């Protein structure tokens, strides 16, 4: 059997602050294969970004400290690598896109120069990236990198790409800047792309184009994607799989059709019923009462129990382990097999 592209196993991350230690990731398990787009969803503060940052090893240190677990990229544990070794993987094997396209481009440099720098850095690790021998002269390598930069810009849908290499970031709209960042993330031909809220800052029509671009890039580059979002609509539209996070745990995961078509964890069900639909009339929108618990003193057992309408005393006895409820579909709830009956009541 082939190795999964990414395998996060029982990852525990602790954060220290003046108030105490927070267990912000509490045994995360996630497997991503090439060709898959995994959506990570959940309310603010559930640990989505820290999971993504952990894979790229960009978590804030200090105060972040791993107490257990592994992050395997094709079998190699990223947590065992030095920052210098990790630096070599970023851009080449792991690409990243973040929420705000404005702050992630340097306003003082032309778009072309920024893309060329990333391509040359990736080519140091793999000369094939720019298709130029490592023994070639500096000028020849820059020319090859610039040609690739133009091709990448065209590929992410920037019209008149070659001429636009000479422009500065302020000459691009928000959606265009996000396309440039996608080009930058893909130029080193990564195996894995981590996209943290890549469309949140964009208007709805541009959002759809960017999500389509990510979907097409998965096919073109045969990579795997972890897409972090608050939005279950984005997951339904873009992802093949989804992991629902609550307070540092994955509470439900599986293929999108199974999880969204038949959510079994009370938290997933609550998130879904909070989505406005065409039928939702004024005053009928059901929000999710309460908030994510303080992770310095989390509630005992299931962390969702204090907000769960189906909680019973046994829920607070121990952290529930994931139970399989279908093909690759699992949920961490001790009442999962009763859920159909509970919901019908
Ligand atoms: N630098 C930090 N120092 C201390 N605690 C932090 C730090 N960064 C994040 N946290 C805590 O870790 C937890 C998880 O944060 P994270 O940013 O991963 O959540 P998230 O699900 O991505 O939220 P959002 O959707 O708002 O980005 C939160 O409780 C947060 O307060």
From TrEMBL:
<dbReference type="InterPro" id="IPR017871">
    <property type="entry name" value="ABC_transporter-like_CS"/>
</dbReference>
<dbReference type="InterPro" id="IPR027417">
    <property type="entry name" value="P-loop_NTPase"/>
</dbReference>
<dbReference type="InterPro" id="IPR050388">
    <property type="entry name" value="ABC_Ni/Peptide_Import"/>
</dbReference>
<comment type="similarity">
    <text>Belongs to the ABC transporter superfamily.</text>
</comment>
<keyword id="KW-0547">Nucleotide-binding</keyword>
<dbReference type="InterPro" id="IPR003439">
    <property type="entry name" value="ABC_transporter-like_ATP-bd"/>
</dbReference>
<protein>
    <submittedName>
        <fullName>Oligopeptide/dipeptide ABC transporter ATP-binding protein</fullName>
    </submittedName>
</protein>
<dbReference type="GO" id="GO:0016887">
    <property type="term" value="F:ATP hydrolysis activity"/>
</dbReference>
<dbReference type="GO" id="GO:0005524">
    <property type="term" value="F:ATP binding"/>
</dbReference>
<keyword id="KW-0813">Transport</keyword>
<keyword id="KW-1003">Cell membrane</keyword>
<dbReference type="GO" id="GO:0005886">
    <property type="term" value="C:plasma membrane"/>
</dbReference>
<dbReference type="GO" id="GO:0015833">
    <property type="term" value="P:peptide transport"/>
</dbReference>
<dbReference type="InterPro" id="IPR013563">
    <property type="entry name" value="Oligopep_ABC_C"/>
</dbReference>
<feature type="domain" description="ABC transporter">
    <location>
        <begin position="6"/>
        <end position="272"/>
    </location>
</feature>
<dbReference type="Pfam" id="PF08352">
    <property type="entry name" value="oligo_HPY"/>
</dbReference>
<dbReference type="GO" id="GO:0055085">
    <property type="term" value="P:transmembrane transport"/>
</dbReference>
<keyword id="KW-0067">ATP-binding</keyword>
<dbReference type="Pfam" id="PF00005">
    <property type="entry name" value="ABC_tran"/>
</dbReference>
<dbReference type="InterPro" id="IPR003593">
    <property type="entry name" value="AAA+_ATPase"/>
</dbReference>
<keyword id="KW-0472">Membrane</keyword>
């Amino acid at each position: 059997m082939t190795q999964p592209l990414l395998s996060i196993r029982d990852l525990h991350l602790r954060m220290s602050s003046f108030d105490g230690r927070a267990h912000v990731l509490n045994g995360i398990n996630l497997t991503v294969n090439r060709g898959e787009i995994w959506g990570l969803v959940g309310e603010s503060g559930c640990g989505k970004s820290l999971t993504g940052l952990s894979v790229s090893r960009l978590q804030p240190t200090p105060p972040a400290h791993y107490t257990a677990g592994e992050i395997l990229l094709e079998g190699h544990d990223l947590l065992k690598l030095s920052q210098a070794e990790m630096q070599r993987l970023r851009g080449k094997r792991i690409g990243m896109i973040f929420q705000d396209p404005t702050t992630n481009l340097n306003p003082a440099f032309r778009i072309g120069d920024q893309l060329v720098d990333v391509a040359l850095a990736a080519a140091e690790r793999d000369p094939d990236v720019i298709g130029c021998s490592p023994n070639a002269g500096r000028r020849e390598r820059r020319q090859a990198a610039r040609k690739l930069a133009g091709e990448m810009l065209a590929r992410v849908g920037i019209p008149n790409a070659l001429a636009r290499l000479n422009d500065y970031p302020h000459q691009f709209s928000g959606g265009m800047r996000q396309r440039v960042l996608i080009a930058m993330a893909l130029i080193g031909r990564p195996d894995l792309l981590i996209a943290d809220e890549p469309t949140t800052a964009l208007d709805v029509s541009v959002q759809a184009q960017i999500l389509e671009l990510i979907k097409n890039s998965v096919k073109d580059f045969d990579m795997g994607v972890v897409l972090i979002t608050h939005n279950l609509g984005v997951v339904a539209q873009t992802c093949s799989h989804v992991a629902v996070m609550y307070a540092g745990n994955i509470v439900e995961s599986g293929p999108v059709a199974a999880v969204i078509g038949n959510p079994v964890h009370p938290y997933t069900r609550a998130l879904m019923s909070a989505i406005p639909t065409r039928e939702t009339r004024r005053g009928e929108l059901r929000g999710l009462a309460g908030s994510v618990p303080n992770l310095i003193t989390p509630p005992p057992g299931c962390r969702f129990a204090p907000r769960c309408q189906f909680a019973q005393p046994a829920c607070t006895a121990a952290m529930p382990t994931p139970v399989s409820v279908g093909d690759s579909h699992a949920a961490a709830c001790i009442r999962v097999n009763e859920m159909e009956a509970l919901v019908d009541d």
